[in-house]
Amino acid sequence: MGKIVLYLAISVDGYIADEQGGVSWLVGDGSEPDAPGSYPAFLDTVDAIVMGWTTYHQLVTELSPDSWPYEGRPCYVVTHRQEENQEDIFFWNGELTDLVDKLKLEHKGTVWICGGASVAGQLLKESRIDQLWLSIIPTVLGKGVRLFPEFPQELPLKLVGTEHWNGIVDLVYEKR
């Protein structure tokens, strides 16, 4: 059985994107510019990816328009749009919890919840996230897209790991 992991970068004040949805601020402080960070090792554990439409659209139009960055891994895009599936990219318009429950059973490694705030919030609310891996970027945005805009209940967490590199701090939590 796999593990459902929310792995995201956030600003110090809890935003995952600026007001325009931009992520150009996702950089460290320059103190270790060649440090690979946690992403390469994390990606090696990923068997499947889940993301919302906005994250997918930003990837294919802005961040990586010339090549799909997750080639060889099934990626499920949660959307209400009727889109044609592509190689390794599947458009899901069913219940989100049904999807992650299915993927958790089908995969032995990590099922990465890659974005965005709506997908993450729904899965946290329904207790489907096994681990939160948050990379805290050394930036205060002040406004933008919040990771947890209005969470309906308290979610007690246990810190199970930390890393730091290039001014970025990774905090890894599991539910208590």
UniProtKB/TrEMBL annotation:
InterPro entries recorded: DHFR-like_dom_sf, RibDG_C, Riboflavin_Biosynth_HTPR
Coiled-coil portions: none
Superkingdom of the source species: Bacteria
Pfam families on file: RibD_C (PF01872)
Domain Bacterial bifunctional deaminase-reductase C-terminal stretches: 3-164
PANTHER family, sorted: 2,5-DIAMINO-6-RIBOSYLAMINO-4(3H)-PYRIMIDINONE 5'-PHOSPHATE REDUCTASE, DIHYDROFOLATE REDUCTASE FAMILY PROTEIN (AFU_ORTHOLOGUE AFUA_8G06820)
Name the UniProt record assigns to this protein: Dihydrofolate reductase family protein
Provenance organism: Flavonifractor hominis
